[in-house]
Design brief:
By secondary structure, the protein is an alpha/beta fold. The chain has a single domain, classed as TIM Barrel, CATH 3.20.20. The chain contains ten helices and eight strands. The strands form two sheets. The chain has a six-stranded parallel β-sheet. Strands 1-2 form a two-stranded antiparallel sheet. Strand 7, helix 9 and strand 8 form a beta-alpha-beta unit. Helix 2 packs parallel to helix 4.
Length: 224
């Protein structure tokens, strides 16, 4: 997760600075910088004995730009199976045939394709018919609704649909034990949220995992 830290050490979250980057036409530059930085981190971790899969959120403009897509392909090709590309539901309403080709090219380089914030769009389920996806990230609004019986039923329905379609699931925004206890214990479900940890730096993450040579598998039931 990208954060901005000022000279005083104050942290700005994406919702604060991404609109300014978008207004300035700089989101594509940020996307490509993130891919380059992730590759640097992966190489560093490998040298220290870690194999850690990474998910990267990519904007629609970047995916639809041929030169940017070619750079992403070349960057991720040597790291097949270790990089997932997350796309927003809003990306899925773009040119369907072109997007299918884009996603196919990324999958040929070994990238997993995730739908981020799943369930927030108007036709979320229809996207699962159109595109070859590997996983969905269930939006945190469904997690906060777990306090009600109706919310629990909706959440279970999404999990069951994903299971039927052979999709991996990441549950976003799990912040407390009450929410955690409603989530099935499965090797095909990961949990992301403050229940485990707030966002931390790559250096802190590696120190937290401890011993080298540990393979951090995305099928474990947690995600920092």
């Amino acid at each position: 997760m990208v954060r901005v830290v000022d000279e005083a050490g104050n942290i700005e979250y994406p919702a604060q600075f991404l609109p300014w980057l978008e207004k300035g036409g700089l989101l594509k530059d940020l996307d490509l910088w993130i891919f380059r930085q992730v590759i640097e981190d992966i190489r560093k971790w490998e040298a220290e004995g870690y194999v850690i899969p990474v998910s990267i959120n990519v904007t629609a403009d970047t995916l639809m730009d041929e030169s940017a897509l070619k750079e992403i392909e070349s960057v991720i090709a040597p790291f097949s199976g270790r990089i997932n590309v997350e796309i927003m539901e809003s990306t899925l309403i773009l040119n369907e045939s072109k997007l299918k080709r884009v996603l196919s090219r990324l999958k040929k380089q070994g990238a997993g394709i995730y739908i981020d914030d799943f369930g927030t769009g108007f036709s979320a389920l229809s996207y699962l018919n159109k595109y070859d996806m590997d996983a969905i990230k269930i939006d945190r609004s469904f997690v906060t609704a777990l306090s009600s019986l109706k919310g629990q039923r909706v959440f279970s329905s999404i999990i069951n649909i994903a299971k039927q379609l052979d999709l991996y699931v990441v549950v976003e925004g799990v912040d407390d034990i009450a929410q955690f206890e409603h989530i099935p214990d499965s090797q095909y479900i990961s949990i992301q949220g403050w229940y485990y940890s707030k966002s931390i730096s790559a250096e802190t993450m590696v120190r937290t995992f401890g011993e080298p040579l540990r393979v951090v598998n995305p099928s474990s039931n947690h995600s920092v």
